[in-house]
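Input sequence (342 aa), recorded before submission:
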Amino acid sequence: MKLPRGIRFRGSSYFVDVTVNGTRRTATCKTLEAAKIRRMELQLALITGRESKEEPKTSRRKVWTLKQAMDTTIQLYWAESKSSKTAGINAQAALDFFGDNFRLDRLDIEALDRYVEHLKKRGNSDATINRKLASIRKAMSTAKARGGCRAIPILPRRKEKVGRIRFLNQEEEQAMLGLLDRWNEVDVKDAVEVLIDTGLRSGELVALQVRDLNFSAGNERGAVTIWENKADHPRTVPMTKRVRAILLRRVEGLGQTDRPFPYNKSWLRYTWHRAKINMGLATDEQFVVHALRHTCASRLVQKGVPLKVVQEWLGHKCITTTMRYAHLAPTSLFEAAAGLER
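Predicted structure, token format:
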């Protein structure tokens, strides 16, 4: 595990080493979280000139401001996460509305209701509002654990609507692949086919290394292991025959740490958009690269694969996310209707 700058593991403890303008301070902590907090305290003390031989206890006695809570949460949890940019945007949105000096003991349900109304007027969707409220809850939890907040109010969570799930039918898939063939877009065509058959996110695809591919797994069908993903939960996905053939071709001559798709995660967009226009789908806002992941999930469900298996395949943290595809397997409902007619 890569440790934050200024912290290293020594013996059974974490050693903190901070230098500001030539002045050095060190400390030893039992846990990594304590070390992160101590590092911030030492940096702040050296910058402001307010040093103390003992660990500051003001944060344990005084109610924190929203900015204190957000800044600490960013340092401890969000700064090194994959969603750091989104977390920063959500944190700033709350600070813009409430102000940096807004105390957490004033952040009650009425204040949060006003914030929700503000977000609604700005055109934020229910899902976006929920994410912004979740960032406030996380910040308050961080503060509460450190004595900066006594209680966390029940956040007014919005009911999220289940939107239309856009996936490619067989005709659209063939039309897309046909265009890519004619344009000699071999890399893009390979990526589209792999994404359809594995359900990987485009970011997961370009992060794959040769060592993540096991061509002898599953009676030599093969499997792809995704170590880093949105849910921070590694998973292994079987290869179809065409995925196996594509990846075998692409790894030829590569080293174990080389990538079969050595691009950034947005490289598909230009060619995808070009194909989308040629297919007469320019106005279809949901016809995006992520629709390939929906296509995999939809086909699994339509083939009768249990939702719990689909959840594991896609790497969803919660089964409720997978339930969006449940209506695509109505076989039991048709059987029930037939039973009424018998």
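Checked by second reader. The first strand starts at residue 7 and ends at 10.
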